[in-house]
């Protein structure tokens, strides 16, 4: 039995608050257990230089943690004067994942900036960010529909992410808390769509390795967790949720 | 009459939530009107090099805004690779203000890091940060008393901040919202202690000037606003509030 | 009695040399006591991006100290790879102060760069910089009149700055030397115009506070010091001085 | 049929030259098709601060491309003044992968620096780097055995990496060249050990997704490719190869 | 007698491989003794901003060493976040030297980027870079002739570089290896053209000085070494070599 | 005839003011024609890490120009966040040159920081810096003798620098002004000692070359110019000058 009587294939409680702050086109506070992330989506009416003139849009993401989101205070990246490798990896992952379910042609020459700011961390900040960012993105695109700037919701399917791993005793588990994550021999992040396709799989042995059988077991757990995440997203999205995947 | 039927000498509504996130020794979410700032205080058991060996503590502050805390999205300072002049000015102001009411000798060789992260901005983010940071600081020092690491609360008085200004029509007003702030000819931040002493006065004519009489009028408004701020702090602080200023 | 038999309400000797170096449109060496600053004003025939197309000009300032302007050698900011918070605060203050007495519409789309380089520091480098920079600015604008690029002197009033403070024994003093400054409990910089209006007031308790009465006393001293500063500026400016504030 | 009559489950030709440059403890030039990487391993007799005093060693990797390793010249990261996110991701991957097969306790307090410098790029530079770096690492550790600084080869198993992907027509292929890589809908890097365990799986849909069946097919291709890579490593390693995985 | 029975006026063996990597317009691996440098020349169809609109071309150079090109591993400049003074000096020298024999008007508005990457260092890396870069440059310009983008070879003469120095015992020597270089009291780099003109002389006493007579002796040695370098270049250049200096 | 009726072998007027600012151990304002440089020497009682424990001292130099030392205003290197290649080259040259005439063993574990800040530039700023820095250095070392921290003046000979060049018409000239410098085909900086030895020769053809005969002629002019420079230094140094080169 895990912390809080959680079962090995059980997600932590999920809450998704929308309209969390007033300025962004889409603003979400997502909590998965004790991990809390503000996901804001901002629409800018132009695209980066490498995209100009193609009539297509772009989605890009940034990720950060408040210095004391964690047990120990971290130095701000702005004070260090540079973004760490871990942050870059995460923000590239978030952006790439979201783009897999967006029809960029339908957005027009606009950029959606996704800002994921972790205010409290307890494991799974990158997967929680993706799950929350998806909701913020849909809400922001909804404002474009409301303003009649675009006609259809340019989202082809739901998208969420979760983590799975292998504990030192060999047990495969779903949705790792910080403490579990720091002990796990294998840590895998899985990003999937509503119809069960993979968008991204990143499995890593931490000074350890894993077998084909363990991989399958972990993928099964991830698949199972996704259902709850999509439900929570659907509920948070209200009317916009039903437009997803429409032709 | 101002927005929301506010009078010229009236503060916006104040709320101060404590224990806002779980990791910091002191964690506060302060809202003054629509301006919302997370103020976290973290205790580190050592001081910066220039303070070592003096048996004294240190208080330092950092300030940041979420990219979309504002109407227009701002580029992250970590992406720019440097902290702007405005941010530096504000974090120096917060740290200096707090140190004016702390007996650093009583803290021992510890640093209290104050992190003010603005999640929604509507004018007065620096004064709101100071007012909230004071509460987070006292709470963090309270944990040292609880752990018997120090004996007395090393805070000599309450401390809060507010803004005052002069509108284009010459009216002096208290607690400027963003819209008022961007029009004002004069903008002044005042930091004061519970017994009515000044800690910091920063009055600036924005391509304008102000007279001695206007200065006096603004200082009077500030003085008036302080009372409400100290009340809100006292309520948020509970038992720790009564230890402030004790010998 | 202070150093050099100076009275508490007495400025140090002021000298302002013009045409100090040959390239800048306005070039001044100002000494207030042992504090010496080269203030150069350079005119550039365009404005920064955020000002373009408005037909208005811009004034911006930079501030630096030679590494050995001080008792201890300081590391160059170019070697550190960044400008410190203190420097940014000062250069923002200088630019903002000057803009308060300039009619930017009359300059046309030009930028005046003000460079204040402290070659010897003994307290009051920022206020000395403002006082000297004003002279360099007027001289530089004079070259535009000489070249018939503009018709009138676009300066609405004289502008100077000084420091006042409170010593540990409670005495309020005018124009602090380095040694006094490092002991003072309160340090206040005041920027004023020729007709006695305030442009900027920055009063700071250094781990201390100050009362309303002390504030008034300090403002009185500042007011008194301004007269001498305006005289010295007038003398240095020669014919250009008489055009200031003309309609 | 692919370029050069290559089959979909066929690796490009592999060559591994050892002792490529004279200074490093291990120096390898690896070519997989037209992708050429210099992999140097350098031994330093101390570990980074966070590892000190544990009696263990550390393996860290850096990755770079010559500016003209690619079709278009890239700006040097030293000129940009920062390492890109892509480079950071790759160097973290290389280091993490190698550490999975090293018994760090047996190295003593030493760091092995792995430098992978791509001199010619044609797809698969990160997997080629891992495969070559493994050889350089073993050779460098061999010098420690030769100098009797350590007793046993602290490598628990062979380690290599390859890429697999899905072409737009749905075909799964092994070992993508640059041209294939830039068209592929799915791109997956797989790092495996000699006994068939996974160390790292990174599968990414590029604005696309992939099914469970496609994942299995790709993993099968990767598994197949590994055999050739281990053979080439074994041949390059000579006597040192036979010590791998010994107790 | 020097290392490898070399005489004091004898160059180390020279080899120049062309078409070393496939992407650059000119790609050379030059070895002088154990010093090995990859010199790549890349043609870009535009010039830097300060050259635009003049109908002329530009040549610029960058220089770097692999971290383990040397006996001790060096930290990458990309990790440091800045290019060192030594590197800047060298790349400025390479670019300036090459430009002395190029008729920039004949290149059209194109930039030739010269990248010199030292893969193994044993003294004389900057002079070896210049000698190799000249070959890469001519080959790259040759591709422009082949594509009929330009008519004539815009190179006015051969160009090579070598080092000379004075050992502690007073002997003047040609082409210093690393060990000799680190002992030498005087170190001089000489860049010359095929017809015996100087392009650059940089002679430095390392905490030492040198006489007029020593200078003459060193220049004589340099002159002698040049002949072999020009021969090696001519051989490497094949048909393109004969176009050099043609009207 | 040159500007101001100067002959081709004639230096511009030299003035060297000592004790120019009050804080540095040695402080000099040197003017050669219209080029004016403040050269300050600061003594620090420790050496950089790479020199520790050898009982020897170190001399290091920094160089900068006020933004408007030149006809066009330059951006500050602190604003750019990095030191340019030109600056690095110059400060390395100044430090290296001075060290050639200092007996570092006699200084003890001290660093002398030389700061050369150009306040007005009209050609020859680097050679003027060296000539002035030498005087500042001797004065600073003199304070060590005065304080009995060292016994003898650790300077083995006088040291000065000048520039020579070749004009487009082929004339060799001494001590180039800015206008001459920007036209010259060849530009050479020569650093020499009081007894006529070379410390540094840096001759550069600017998109041009020079013959052996021209080199000799330029060296002759440099030699001639040195005499005047040494006289001016001797006069400025007073009593300290006579201790130079004593055993």
Automatic annotation (TrEMBL), chains A, B, C, D, E, F:
Keywords linked to the UniProt accession: Nucleotidyltransferase, RNA-binding, rRNA processing, Transferase, tRNA processing, tRNA-binding
Q: Does the keyword Transferase apply?
A: yes
SUPFAM superfamilies the record matches: Ribonuclease PH domain 2-like, Ribosomal protein S5 domain 2-like
The protein's job, in short, is: Phosphorolytic 3'-5' exoribonuclease that plays an important role in tRNA 3'-end maturation. Removes nucleotide residues following the 3'-CCA terminus of tRNAs; can also add nucleotides to the ends of RNA molecules by using nucleoside diphosphates as substrates, but this may not be physiologically important. Probably plays a role in initiation of 16S rRNA degradation (leading to ribosome degradation) during starvation.
Family in the record? Belongs to the RNase PH family.
Binding sites annotated in the UniProt record for phosphate: 86, 124-126
What's its top-level EC category?
Answer: transferase
**UniProt cross-references to PANTHER family, sorted A to Z:** EXOSOME COMPLEX COMPONENT (PTHR11953), EXOSOME COMPLEX COMPONENT RRP41 (PTHR11953:SF0)
Reaction catalysis annotation: tRNA(n+1) + phosphate = tRNA(n) + a ribonucleoside 5'-diphosphate
Coiled-coil ranges from the UniProt annotation = none
Q: Which HAMAP family match?
A: RNase_PH
Q: Where does the source fall among the domains of life?
A: Bacteria
Documented EC number(s): 2.7.7.56
**Record-annotated Exoribonuclease phosphorolytic domain positions:** 10-140, 157-222
Quaternary organization: Homohexameric ring arranged as a trimer of dimers.
Q: Reply yes or no: does the keyword Transmembrane helix apply.
A: no
Instruction: Write down what this protein is called.
Output: Ribonuclease PH
